Amino acid sequence: MDADAELDRGRQACRRQAWAEAYALLGKADTVRPLDAADVEALAEAADMLGRCDDAVALLRRAFTAYAGTGEVGAALRCAYWLCKGLAWGGELAQSGAWLARAQRLAATEPDCPSRGYLTMLEAELHFRAGEPAEMLTLARHLATTVGGDADPDLLAGTAMTLGLALVSNGEVAAGLAQLDEAMVVVADGTPSARCIGMTYCVVIGTCQDLQELRRAQEWAKALSRWCAAQPDFSGAYRGLCRVHRAALLQLGGAWPEADREARLACAQLTAGYGESAAGSAFYQLAELHRLRGEYAEAEQAYRDTLRHGWDTQPGLALLRLSQDRPTPAAAAIRRALAETTDPMRRARLLPAAVEILLAEGAEEGHEQRADGAGAGERRGAGAGAAEGRDRLGGVGAGAGPARRGDGVGAEAGQEQRGGGGAGVADGGPSGGAGLSGGSGLPDGSGRRGVSAEALRAADELAALAEAQSIVALRLVACQARGAVLLAQGVAGEALGVLREAGRGWRELDVPYEAARVGVLVALACRALGDEDCAALELDAAGQAFARLGALPDLRRVEGLRGRSVLSPRELDVVRLIAQGRTNHAIAAELVLSEKTVARHISNIFAKLDLGSRTAVAAYAFENGLVRPPGV
């Protein structure tokens, strides 16, 4: 076969997006006779799609030089854009900046060149990474006014994507999402280059996840899956980021084995030389899956890998500590994380965990005080274990936080790490970012059971954020947190309505893990209201969901809570009176029983609940809503 025929076959392979074939054929043709600039650019794209990033960078340098030498400034600037992105992915930020400066000098020779917009996109990304959203938005708006509808598809998609991300970063979430949708419309018709399509999917889906816009994220993720299926050769850093987003959505949807596979592949692809600075997102996702399945040693290692790659480990690491029955370090970690950021959407990802952890910390601090008071008449052992009480607190919707992205690689890989913040909205927010402090755990004057003031403030801030943003998932998380706080306050009837709203919403979004966690809280509320039948049904449903998912820690909690239903109505009466500090004599008088019968009931209660003291029984009663304070 002659060189021209082989070159033609290579070009056809590029058009079919058969990247391995294209790379081989064009590369072979290049050894026979040097390719022209357009074919070198095509070979660079094939290398990029195959994950051969060093080759892609070298070829883009060559294409830029060739285009510039023939006066094709627009094509040269397009190559400069992808070259700077590739260098940044490889951690070569100084070289990326140098090539941007060189491209700017070339652009100055042709000031009206439409492809100058490629450099404006790179400049906007620099402001994004520097945490300068206002400056980014100024550039993005200028870009949108200068790029016409007849611009090349990569520039059209990139302009809408850049403006969308800038608007979101400045708090204009609805307008930003509309622009991101517009970018996806350009991508959907298949006219942009394959690398542009992959990048745009990554940015849009990642931003939707950051904003907890789950429906949008799920919709575009399905489209991405179809596109990736048609790109069997697609590999490298962009594919790694695509896998991270896919893993997060698979986890939310309950497909945990598939999510694990995608996360592991993402870890491998993002640590292969390019995209290393974004690898922390993949390790964080893997750590979350380990944590939820109760694989704590593996989770610990994955969180270490997350941090090693420069990414935030919260709220996942704090929740791991809580799962390990270590509420004090968990609370310290979540307080520190909240104190470090003012970004509202970053705080929205931390606050659900904060509510759960602070409620657990308050429960542990209150156990000994309450149990001491309850057992003052006749103490039969040491205080109840804190873990027993925490296992019965339920959850607050913090089980599937999105990966924490690091900076240094552009918008698609740097969306969440600016100053500890995320792709968030305007600075400030309801709390002003002051963090949470104080909290006596004393009654708040409302006649309700005392709950940590910190937990109350966290739930209130989350509710305010949900009200400010029309985001369904954020509203559900806020409802879940509010329900947990109301339940801890002993206001089970009020909690029940809020929790049922959250449960319906998670089921509509097809997020089974969070729906099951809400189900546990609903069961506790029903139990507190004396409806053991409904509580048992809710626990059965939640247990089945946790078993299907492989959420072993949650399943063990449910099994422990099911043990409560083995108590007879009379034994439940005895438990409530023990929690009120009554002696056997007082219980016998209250229930019109002999003290010998009361003693037998207490012995049965200890055996059925596997407890050894009245203080432990009292702690169970308070944590499971079997006792409500006077006036509630």
Describe the structure concisely for a colleague.
This protein is mainly α and 632 residues long. Helix content is 70%, strand content 0%.
Descriptive account of the structure:
The chain is built from 30 helices and no strands. The relative contact order is 0.07. The model is unreliable at 374-394 and 398-447 (pLDDT under 50). The chain has 632 residues and is an all-alpha fold. The longest helix is centred in the middle third of the chain and has 31 residues, at 344-374.
Q: Helix- and strand-based class? A: mainly alpha
How would you characterize the largest beta sheet? none
Number of strands: 0
SSE string, helix = H, strand = E? HHHHHHHHHHHHHHHHHHHHHHHHHHHHHH
Poorly predicted parts: 374-394, 398-447
The fraction of residues assigned to DSSP E strands is under 5%
Gap between N and C termini, in Å?
88 Å
Give the C-alpha Rg: 29 Å
Helix content: 55-70%
What is the tally of helical segments?
Answer: 30
Query: Globular, elongated, flat, extended or rod-shaped: what is the shape?
Result: elongated
What is the mean predicted local confidence, pLDDT? 84
